[in-house]
């Protein structure tokens, strides 16, 4: 048990699927739960067939709320509006439950001390609920209440605004404007803001400024080093695909992840040097997400256009039974256990995103003793040490990536690879462990509890914005009616 008294920790996350943000929030919950805090995760969506094991096997208390009134999108549009409305619906349900629980706990004499636990809200990705929690989530007299916002990256920088013609872009600009403003205003209602990397912290400061959010500290995502074990030497018959040398790329099937770079770099090796190798492109895939479906098809077409033989599988059994002449295997929604096997038996991880906010996969690879080749931008600059745990290269220079792959295959001794593997594992355990993240989270919670709540600018700006929007719509309607 740590020095911080147990608190009632409530985590709010939009969608508990499979991805880096979801893995982070699961690890946040595990780190705090292991330290004696009571942790509950509230989410608007969880598919038990498409989430991490801890979110479905009872390890964590996960409650789905806010999913019965508003859809996730409307004809593939208005995602941010629907997500905000779903979170507000979730928050209403949450506050009702907390009120009921508070009343029952006060009457329950069999749970001494629980009514005195502080309420700590941890919100990430979407801050729509933060002003509501700050204004309506009033703590009991015996409790303190604080709100920590974990910022992965400003949402307004993730929105796509350049698609379509000029009129469509103008419409998107007008649609996004209130949400862009609202994001910073809503985040300012939190008592403390943290970021997932120094890179993200710099972006947050540049977008929102320090006056609105105060000091933004860094809490790195983590890997659970307690579950790491030494990988036994595999006999030839136990190795994947008869002992093929595996290049591995793990990411969600999204265009911004640029997994096509891995395919182009692999193709650059040439048929002779590719002999006895295989590129495995694995990661988060959701049939509900149109981009996942489209991008997988684009990647498959890219590989085939380059003359590479491909296969796509959704299960471990089918993945293990693909023909020997397959060059590129697309593995959709890889299970955690098989992902760990891939990390343990691969030769090199290809981490292709540019300006990734943090990127947990390189850390997972280092923990498994797998060297990492990553873009020399964003989070990997803070995780991968050039020449020691891997390599950092320009994502626009495909030939540089191919050269590193060639070096790993033919230019390094087993002793050199083993030294790099040991350095990567040591760095992951030292800097990015579940324990290290738990320490940082408790420091942030303690800091919040030791000072008065941060003042909130209030609701007046929202009312002013609503008046401005209504006035604009009224003028627009009047103009259209006149033209009719």
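-> sequence recovered:
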């Amino acid at each position: 048990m740590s020095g911080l008294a147990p608190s009632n920790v409530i985590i709010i996350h939009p969608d508990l699927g499979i991805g880096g943000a979801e893995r982070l929030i699961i690890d946040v919950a595990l780190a705090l739960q292991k330290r004696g805090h009571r942790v509950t995760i509230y989410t608007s969506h969880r598919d038990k067939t498409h989430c991490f094991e801890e979110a479905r096997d009872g390890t964590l208390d996960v409650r789905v709320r806010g999913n019965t009134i508003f859809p996730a999108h409307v004809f593939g549009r208005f995602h941010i509006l629907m997500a905000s409305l779903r979170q507000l619906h979730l928050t209403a349900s949450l506050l009702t439950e907390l009120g009921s629980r508070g009343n029952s706990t006060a009457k329950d004499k069999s749970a001494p001390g629980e009514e005195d636990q502080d309420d700590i809200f941890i919100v990430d990705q979407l801050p729509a609920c933060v002003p509501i929690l700050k204004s309506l989530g009033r703590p009991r007299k015996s409790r303190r209440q604080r709100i920590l916002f974990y910022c992965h990256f400003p949402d307004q920088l993730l929105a796509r605004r350049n698609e379509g013609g000029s009129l469509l872009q103008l419409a998107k600009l007008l649609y996004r404007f209130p949400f862009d403003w609202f994001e910073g205003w809503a985040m300012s209602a939190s008592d403390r803001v943290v970021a997932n990397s120094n890179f993200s912290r710099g972006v947050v400061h540049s977008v929102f400024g320090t006056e609105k959010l105060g000091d933004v500290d860094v809490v790195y995502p983590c890997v659970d080093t307690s579950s790491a074990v030494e990988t036994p030497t595999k006999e030839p018959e136990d190795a994947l695909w008869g002992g093929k040398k595996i290049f591995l790329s793990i990411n969600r099937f999204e265009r911004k992840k640029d997994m096509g770079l891995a395919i182009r770099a692999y193709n650059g090796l040439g048929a002779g040097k590719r002999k006895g190798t295989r590129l495995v492109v694995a990661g988060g895939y959701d049939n509900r997400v149109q981009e996942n479906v489209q991008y997988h098809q684009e990647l498959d077409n890219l590989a085939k256009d380059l003359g590479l033989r491909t296969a796509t599988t959704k299960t471990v059994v089918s993945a293990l039974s693909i023909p020997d002449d397959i060059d590129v295997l697309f593995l959709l929604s890889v299970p955690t256990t098989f992902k760990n096997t891939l990390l343990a038996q691969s030769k090199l991880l290809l981490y292709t995103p540019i300006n990734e906010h943090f990127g947990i996969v390189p850390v997972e690879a280092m923990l498994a003793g797998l060297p990492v080749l990553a873009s020399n931008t964003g989070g990997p600059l803070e995780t991968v040490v050039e020449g020691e745990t891997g390599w950092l290269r320009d994502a626009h220079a495909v030939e540089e990536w191919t050269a590193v792959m060639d070096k790993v295959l033919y230019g390094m001794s087993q002793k050199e690879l083993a030294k790099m593997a040991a350095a990567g594992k040591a760095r992951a355990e030292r800097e990015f462990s579940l324990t290290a993240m738990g320490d940082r989270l408790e420091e942030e919670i303690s800091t919040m509890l030791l000072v008065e709540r941060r003042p909130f600018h209030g609701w007046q700006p929202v009312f002013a914005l609503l008046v401005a929007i209504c006035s604009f719509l009224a003028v627009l309607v009047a103009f259209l009616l006149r033209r009719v």
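Residues 227-432 form a domain with the Rossmann fold fold (CATH 3.40.50.2000).
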